[in-house]
C-alpha cells in the first residue's frame, strides 16, 4: 500500500508519556451541575468509553474501550501489526510491553477500567448504596446500568490482568464503594462473585427499561456481559441459557451487512449503530471530536489513519487460510494499492498470499470509501452484537455436553456465511470445539473478542508467516506475555502490594 502522507506533526508524540496519576483512583466525569442526576453521570461514563486520554496519557493509543479491543486482537495474534513506522503498538506486537510494568500499555487499561468502576460506585452510592433497591423506574434503570458498567470494568480487568481463571488466586483490588483507601488484591472468586451479583441484579433492575439509544446498557447487554462472565468461569450451562435467549431476540448480521460487495458497491461496513444485529455501541457524531486518535484512526484505511500511511492492521495469514473457500468473509480482507483515482484491491493469490497487507477494507470502512478520507470520525463504534452469542451458545452447549444442539446452532449461524455447512454434522468432541473457536476468531476479527475466547478455551495460538515478530511461534493462552502487568503506578501508590 502506497504512503502518500507523512504524519510529521505527530512524530513528537511517538513515545508514550511517563506513568503517573494524581490520585489513587480518579472520579470521572466532572459534571457542571452541583448534584447531577444519576443518568447524567451515567451518560458521562458512556462518553468516557469513547473519549481520548481516559487512560491517563496523550498517546494515540489512548481512546477508551476500542483501544483495548485493538490491543487484545494484537495480543491474540489474529491481528498483525504490518508496519512500525510510527511506533504505536510496536511494544504490544513484540510482547515487550506486557512484561514491563513501567510501560504505559499496562497503565492505560488499569486506569481506565478503575475510573469506570469508581464512577459507577459514585452513581450507586448516590442512589442509596449497593444493597438499596430503588423505588422509581428511572432510579431502577440508573442503578441497573451502574451495576452493569461496574461489572463490565471488573470483567475486563480480570481478563487482561490475570493469566487464567483460578478462583483461589489473588488478582486485583476490588472496590465497591466511594472510598479511595488502597486495598490489597482480592481473590478471583471474590471478584467474579461481585461481577455475577452486579450483572444478575442489573438484569432484574433493567427489566422493562427502554433505552434512549444503543449507547446505553439495557437488560440484553447486561445478559450478554453475564453470559461472557459465566463462560469465563466455566459455568457453561448458564452461559448457554443466556446466549440462547439473546439469539432468539435479535437477527444475526446478514450477508449484505457482513461484506462490502465491490461489484455492486453495496453492503458491509460495520460502521452504523443502526445495524439490527448490533446490541451495544456508540453513535459517534461531530460533537465527539474524534480524529486520528481513535480506533478508526488506527485501523481503517478509508480514515485518516496510521493503517493508511503504513502501519497497517492486517489479518494473520494462517487464520485467513483457515477460512473455507466458500466463506464470504474471505472477501472482507484485501490488499490495497492507492492510485491517482482512488484505490484498487486484490484478493490473495492461489498460494494464499497478498501483494500488500491483507487489511479489512470490506469489513471496516467509512461509507464514503475514500482512502485516507475521513478526518473527523463519525463512523460508529461497535461493542457487542448478537452474532457473538450464536458462537458463545455453540461453544458453551458443546462444553456442557449438548453437542447436538451446539452443531445445530453453529450450522444455522454459518448458513449465510459458507455455502455448505454439512461438514458440521460430523464434528464432535475436540473437533467440534476447535471449529467453534475457529469460527469465533473469523467472525469477530477486529472486534476485541478473540482474546476472550482464547482465554476461555485455554488455546495455544500460533503466529502466521506475516507477523513482524515471532512469526511461526506458538504461545499458550496463559503465557505471561499475553497478559498485562499491574502497572508501576499501582505498585508505587498501593502499600498493600
Explain how this protein is built:
With 497 residues, the chain is mostly helical. It folds into two domains: 33-233 and 478-497, Serine Threonine Protein Phosphatase 5, Tetratricopeptide repeat; 253-383, no CATH class. Helices cover 38% and strands 6% of the residues. It contains 16 helices and eight strands. It has a two-stranded antiparallel ribbon. Helix 2 (65-76) crosses helix 15. The relative contact order is 0.15. Mean pLDDT is 92; it is low at 1-34. Keywords: Cell outer membrane, Membrane, Signal. Residues 1-21 form the signal peptide.
What is the secondary structure topology, with strand pairs?
Layout: H1 38-48, H2 65-76, E1 79-81, H3 90-93, H4 104-126, H5 137-161, H6 188-205, H7 219-233, H8 236-247, H9 255-258, E2 278-282, H10 295-299, E3 313-315, H11 317-322, E4 335-339, E5 342-346, E6 381-385, H12 387-399, H13 403-414, H14 429-443, H15 450-456, E7 460-462, E8 474-476, H16 488-493
Antiparallel strand pairs: 1-3, 2-6, 4-5, 7-8
Helix pairs in contact: 1-4, 2-15, 4-5, 5-6, 5-7, 6-7, 7-8, 8-12, 12-13, 12-14
Characterize this entry briefly.
This is RagB/SusD family nutrient uptake outer membrane protein. The chain is mostly helical and 497 residues long.
Any descriptors?
single chain, 497 residues, mainly alpha, Serine Threonine Protein Phosphatase 5, Tetratricopeptide repeat, two-stranded antiparallel ribbon, two-stranded antiparallel sheet, 6% strand, disordered N terminus
Class of secondary structure makeup: mainly alpha
- Number of H- or I-type helical stretches: 16
Mean pLDDT: 92
Give the domain tally: 2
Backbone shape: globular
- List unreliable stretches of 5+ residues: 1-34
CATH fold node name of the largest domain: Serine Threonine Protein Phosphatase 5, Tetratricopeptide repeat
Radius of gyration: 22 Å
Binned, the helix content reads: 25-40%
- The sequence of SSEs as H and E is HHEHHHHHHHEHEHEEEHHHHEEH
Strand order of the largest sheet: 1-3
First-residue to last-residue Cα separation: 47 Å
What is the architecture of the largest domain at the second tier of CATH?
A: Alpha Horseshoe
> Quick one: CATH class of the largest domain?
Mainly Alpha
- Work out the strand percent: 5-15%
Let me know the number of strands.
Answer: 8
Major β-sheet profile: 2 strands, antiparallel
Amino acid at each position: 500500500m502506497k504512503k502518500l502522507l507523512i504524519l510529521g506533526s505527530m512524530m513528537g508524540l511517538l513515545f508514550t508519556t511517563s506513568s503517573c496519576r494524581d490520585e489513587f483512583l480518579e472520579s470521572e466525569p466532572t459534571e457542571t451541575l452541583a448534584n447531577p442526576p444519576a443518568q447524567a453521570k451515567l451518560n458521562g461514563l458512556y462518553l468516557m468509553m469513547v473519549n481520548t486520554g481516559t487512560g491517563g496519557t496523550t498517546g494515540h493509543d489512548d481512546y477508551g474501550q476500542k483501544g483495548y479491543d485493538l490491543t487484545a486482537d494484537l495480543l491474540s495474534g489474529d491481528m498483525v501489526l504490518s508496519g512500525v513506522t510510527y511506533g504505536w503498538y510496536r511494544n504490544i506486537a513484540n510482547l515487550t510491553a506486557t512484561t514491563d510494568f513501567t510501560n504505559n500499555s499496562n497503565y492505560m487499561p488499569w486506569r481506565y477500567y478503575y475510573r469506570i468502576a469508581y464512577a459507577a460506585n459514585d452513581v450507586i452510592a448516590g442512589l442509596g448504596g449497593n444493597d438499596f433497591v430503588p423505588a422509581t423506574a428511572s432510579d431502577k434503570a440508573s442503578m441497573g446500568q451502574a451495576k452493569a458498567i461496574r461489572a463490565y470494568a471488573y470483567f475486563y480487568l480480570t481478563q487482561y490482568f490475570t493469566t487464567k481463571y483460578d478462583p483461589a488466586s489473588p488478582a486485583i483490588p476490588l472496590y465497591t464503594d466511594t472510598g479511595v483507601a488502597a486495598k490489597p488484591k482480592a481473590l478471583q472468586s471474590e471478584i467474579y462473585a461481585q461481577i455475577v451479583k452486579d450483572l444478575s441484579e442489573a438484569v432484574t433492575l433493567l427489566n422493562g427499561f427502554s433505552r434512549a439509544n444503543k449507547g446505553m446498557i439495557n437488560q440484553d447487554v447486561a445478559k450478554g456481559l453475564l453470559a461472557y462472565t459465566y463462560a469465563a468461569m466455566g459455568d457453561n450451562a448458564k452461559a448457554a441459557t443466556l446466549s440462547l435467549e439473546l439469539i432468539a431476540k435479535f437477527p444475526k448480521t446478514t450477508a449484505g451487512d457482513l461484506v462490502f460487495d465491490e461489484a455492486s458497491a453495496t453492503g458491509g461496513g460495520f460502521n452504523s449503530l443502526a445495524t439490527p444485529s448490533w446490541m451495544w455501541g456508540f453513535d459517534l457524531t461531530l460533537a465527539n471530536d474524534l480524529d486520528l486518535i481513535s480506533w478508526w484512526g488506527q485501523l481503517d484505511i478509508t480514515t485518516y489513519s496510521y493503517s493508511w500511511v503504513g502501519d497497517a492492521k492486517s489479518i494473520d495469514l494462517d487464520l485467513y487460510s483457515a477460512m473455507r473457500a466458500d466463506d464470504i468473509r474471505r472477501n472482507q480482507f484485501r490488499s490495497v494499492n492507492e492510485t491517482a483515482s482512488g484505490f484498487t484491491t486484490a484478493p490473495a493469490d492461489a498460494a494464499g498470499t497478498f501483494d500488500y497487507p491483507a487489511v479489512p477494507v470490506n469489513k471496516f470502512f467509512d461509507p464514503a470509501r475514500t482512502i485516507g478520507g475521513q478526518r473527523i470520525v463519525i463512523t460508529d463504534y461497535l461493542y457487542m452484537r448478537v452474532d457473538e452469542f450464536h458462537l458463545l451458545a455453540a461453544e458453551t452447549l458443546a462444553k456442557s455436553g449438548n453437542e447436538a444442539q451446539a452443531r445445530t446452532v453453529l450450522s444455522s449461524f454459518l448458513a449465510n456465511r459458507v455455502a455448505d455447512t454439512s461438514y458440521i454434522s460430523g464434528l464432535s468432541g475436540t473437533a467440534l470445539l476447535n471449529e467453534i473457536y475457529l469460527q469465533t476468531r473469523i467472525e469477530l476479527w477486529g472486534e476485541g473478542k478473540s482474546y476472550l475466547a482464547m482465554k476461555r478455551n485455554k488455546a495455544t495460538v500460533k503466529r502466521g508467516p506475516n507477523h513482524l515478530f515471532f512469526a511461526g511461534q506458538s504461545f499458550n493462552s496463559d503465557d505471561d506475555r499475553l497478559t498485562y502487568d499491574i502497572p508501576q503506578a499501582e505498585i508505587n501508590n498501593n502499600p498493600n502490594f
